[in-house]
Design brief:
single chain; alpha+beta; OB fold (Dihydrolipoamide Acetyltransferase, E2P); Chloramphenicol Acetyltransferase; 3 domains; seven-stranded mixed β-sheet; 13 helices; globular
Length: about 500
C-alpha cells in the first residue's frame, strides 16, 4: 500500500519552509518518527520526521524547494516494508528447515510444465475470441463514421445559415447605435453616471468596457474620488438602495486601513553601480535567516521610535559568586554565566516595570500588558542571529535557566531548534561581551518594546570612599520604544538592573 508523508503543521505562524537537506534515498526502509528532511523556516531549522513507515518509493522534494504545510515530501510502500521483514524472517529460519529431495523437485517441475501447456491452450482460445470481437467492433465503427459524416454536413449547413442571420442582426444593431448615439450617451449617464468627457476620444469598445465595469450607482464626482483614492467602486456598498456617496468611499478606506495589522513598510533601493568596473566581485544569495532578519530589522527601525540608554554595573561581587558556584551548575548540565544571571534579574525587573513587558496595538490604540515572563537570548550562529526564548523565567531557578539556556544555544548552533522554542518572547538580551566592544545600540525586536545590550566587562579604577579601587565594570545599553516608555522610566529600569548586579540581595528583597 502506497502512503504519503506530508509536511505537518510546524508552528502557528509558519506556513512554508525551504528544504535544506534530504536525509533518505529511494529504497531506504523508513520508520515512524525517523527524520526524512531538514527544513528551514523564517524562525528556525529543524528535522521533519516521518509519520508513516515503509520503503521509500519516490521522493517528491529536493534541496532548495520551498514547500508548504500539507505538501507531499515522499511516498512509502508499506507492503514492501512488510515483505522485506518476511524475507528476513525466512532467511533466519532457512538453516533450520530440511531441504526437499530431488524426486520432489522433479515432480514439481513436471507439474509446472503441464500447467504451462494448459495455460497456453487457454490463451490461444481467448485470443481468437478477442480477434473476432475486435473485427465486429471495427465494422460497427465504420458504420457510425458514415452516419456521423452525414449529420455533420447537415449541421454545418444549418450553422452557416444561423451565422449569416446573426451577422445581419449585428450589423443592423450597429447601424441603429450610430443613429441614436446621442440618446444612448444620455441613458448611460442616468444608468451608470458616466460623463461624456470620460469616454471622449476613446473607441466604442473602451467606452462599452467602462460602462460594464462600473456598475455601482454613483455620481461622476464620487467615481472621481474613488479613482483618486485607488478604490474599486464596485466593492463599496452604499446605504440601502441609494447611490454611493463620498462618505461611503471614505468609510471604505478607513475600514481598509483599520483591517491591516500595522503600517506597511516599502523600501526601494536606488540602482546600484556596476561594481565590476572597479574589480572582481562575487554574488551570493542571502540565507533565509539573513533575509528574514533584514526584513524584521527594517520594519522595526521604520515603525518604532527608538532611544538607547547607557549605564555601567559593578559586577565584582557577582563575578565572585559566579566563579564559586559555576561547578555546581555544570554538574546539572548548565553554565553559570552573566547572561543566565541577567535572565533572572530581568524577569524580576519586568515585574517591577510592567510597561517593559508589554506590546502596542496600533490599530486599536491599546497597550497589551503581559502577565507571563518569557525572555529571548540572541545567539550567534553561522546562519545569522537566532533568538531562542526561555519561557516562564520568573518560575525557574538560576540553575534551571543556565541549563535551558545552554541547551537552546546548542540547538540553535546545530540547526536543531524548533519554531516553538523561538516564539513568545517579551524581552530580549543581546550579549556581545564574549566578542568584545565597549557599547552598542541594539534594535528592538517588534512587537517587543525593549532590548538589553551587554558588552565586555573591563577592570577600571573606581573611586570608593575617596580611594580608587580596581572593579569589574559591565557596560549596559537599553534600547526602548519611546511611544510607550519615557526616558526617565528607561533610566530607572536600567539602574535597577545595575544595582541588582552590584548587590544581588536587591533582587531578593
Amino acid at each position: 500500500m502506497i502512503k504519503e508523508v506530508k509536511l505537518p503543521e510546524v508552528s502557528d505562524n509558519v506556513e512554508t519552509g525551504d528544504v535544506v537537506k534530504v536525509l533518505v534515498s529511494v529504497g531506504d526502509d523508513v520508520k515512524v518518527d525517523q527524520p526524512v528532511i531538514e527544513l528551514e523556516t523564517d524562525k528556525a531549522m529543524f528535522e521533519v520526521p516521518s509519520t508513516e513507515e515503509g520503503v521509500v518509493k519516490e521522493i517528491k522534494v529536493k534541496v532548495g524547494d520551498a514547500i508548504s504545510i500539507g505538501s507531499v515530501i515522499l511516498t512509502l510502500d508499506s507492503e514492501a516494508g512488510s515483505d522485506k521483514k518476511v524475507e528476513d524472517d525466512k532467511g533466519e529460519e532457512k538453516g533450520g528447515k530440511k531441504e526437499t529431495s530431488d524426486e520432489e523437485k522433479e515432480d514439481s517441475k513436471d507439474e509446472k510444465k503441464e500447467d504451462s501447456k494448459d495455460e497456453k491452450k487457454e490463451d490461444s482460445k481467448d485470443e481468437k475470441k478477442e480477434d473476432s470481437k475486435e473485427e465486429e467492433k471495427e465494422d460497427s465503427k465504420d458504420e457510425k463514421k458514415d452516419d456521423s459524416k452525414d449529420e455533420k454536413k447537415e449541421t454545418s449547413k444549418e450553422e452557416k445559415k444561423e451565422d449569416s442571420k446573426d451577422e445581419k442582426k449585428e450589423t443592423s444593431k450597429e447601424e441603429k447605435k450610430e443613429d441614436t448615439k446621442g440618446e444612448s450617451e444620455k441613458k448611460d449617464e442616468d444608468k451608470h453616471d458616466i460623463k461624456k468627457d470620460d469616454v471622449k476620444g476613446k473607441s466604442d469598445e473602451k467606452a462599452v468596457a467602462t460602462v460594464v465595469k462600473d456598475t455601482a450607482p454613483a455620481s461622476p464626482s464620487v467615481r472621481r474620488l474613488a479613482r483618486e483614492l485607488g478604490v474599486d467602486i464596485n466593492e463599496v456598498t452604499g446605504n440601502s438602495l441609494e447611490r454611493i456617496s463620498e462618505g461611503d468611499i471614505k468609510k471604505f478606506v478607513r475600514d481598509k486601513i483599520r483591517s491591516t495589522e500595522g503600517p506597511v513598510v516599502s523600501v526601494t533601493q536606488k540602482a546600484l553601480p556596476n561594481f565590476e568596473k572597479w574589480g572582481e566581485i562575487e554574488r551570493e544569495p542571502m540565507s533565509k535567516v539573513r533575509a528574514i532578519t533584514g526584513d524584521a530589522m527594517t520594519y522595526a527601525w521604520t515603525t518604532i521610535p527608538m532611544v538607547t540608554q547607557f549605564d555601567k554595573a559593578d559586577i565584582t561581587q557577582i563575578e565572585e559568586f559566579r566563579k564559586k558556584y559555576s561547578k555546581k551548575v555544570e554538574e546539572d548540565g548548565g553554565h553559570l554565566t552573566v547572561t543566565s544571571l541577567l535572565v533572572k534579574i530581568c524577569s524580576v525587573a519586568l515585574k517591577e516595570f510592567s510597561q517593559f513587558n508589554s506590546s502596542i496595538d496600533v490599530v486599536s490604540k491599546e497597550i497589551i500588558f503581559k502577565k507571563y515572563f518569557n525572555i529571548g537570548i540572541a545567539v550567534d550562529t553561522d546562519r545569522g542571529l537566532l533568538v531562542p526564548v526561555i519561557k516562564d523565567t520568573d518560575k525557574k531557578t538560576i540553575t534551571e535557566i543556565s541549563s535551558e539556556l545552554n541547551e537552546l544555544a546548542e540547538k540553535a548552533r546545530n540547526k536543531k531548534i524548533s519554531p516553538e522554542e523561538m516564539d513568545g518572547g517579551n524581552f530580549t538580551i543581546s550579549n556581545l561581551g564574549g566578542i568584545g566592544g565597549t557599547n552598542f545600540s541594539p534594535i528592538v525586536y517588534s512587537p517587543q518594546v525593549a532590548i538589553l545590550g551587554v558588552s565586555r566587562a573591563i577592570k577600571e579604577a573606581v573611586l570608593i570612599n575617596e580611594k580608587f579601587e580596581p572593579r569589574f565594570m559591565l557596560p549596559l545599553s537599553l534600547t526602548y520604544d519611546h511611544r510607550i516608555i519615557d526616558g526617565a522610566d528607561a533610566a530607572r529600569f536600567l539602574r535597577w538592573i545595575a544595582e541588582a548586579l552590584e548587590n544581588p540581595m536587591v533582587m531578593v528583597l
